[in-house]
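Hi all, long-time lurker, first post. I run a small reading group and we've been trying to get comfortable going from sequence to structure in the token notation. Rather than ask abstract questions, I figured I'd post a concrete chain and ask someone more experienced to write out its structure so we can walk through it together at our next meeting. Sequence below, copied exactly:
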Amino acid sequence: MKFVKSTRWVTWGLLLILTFALGIWESVHLIELGSKDAYNTLRISNIIYSFVAFGVLLKIGNIKILDRLKPRETTFGIYLLHSIVIERFLPLIFQPLKLDVQHYNVLENTAVLIIRFIIAYSVSYLLSALIIKTKMKWTVGQ
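-- Answer (accepted) --
Happy to help. Here is the structure in token form:
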């Protein structure tokens, strides 16, 4: 924490932009090499970006508006439910659209991924919050 707090915001901002750009470059490079899974989150650039983003979050500290989302109550439920939502619910939305993501550019694929994330997170959060209000709350760690 001492290191995080003593490092200037400009440094964190530049590191965040640099590591994000590195991740995008690596995805583009993997696509050029013919990779079928160029957006895999286990790439080294993404791991480095994750560490930097975590440092930025530590630097920000407590975000009061997030307290309304009750992260201590819902996080484990979101973790348990998100894979079900991604595997069972998202195909119901995206398969009928017949998106040809193999021929999309990086920005188009990124937009699709962001939309998928927003839907998956929102549905997982909503389900978790609803389950917490029932007798079945023990299934999501309550």
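A couple of things your group might point at:
The chain is about 70% helix and 0% strand.
The chain has two domains: 1-61, 64-142.
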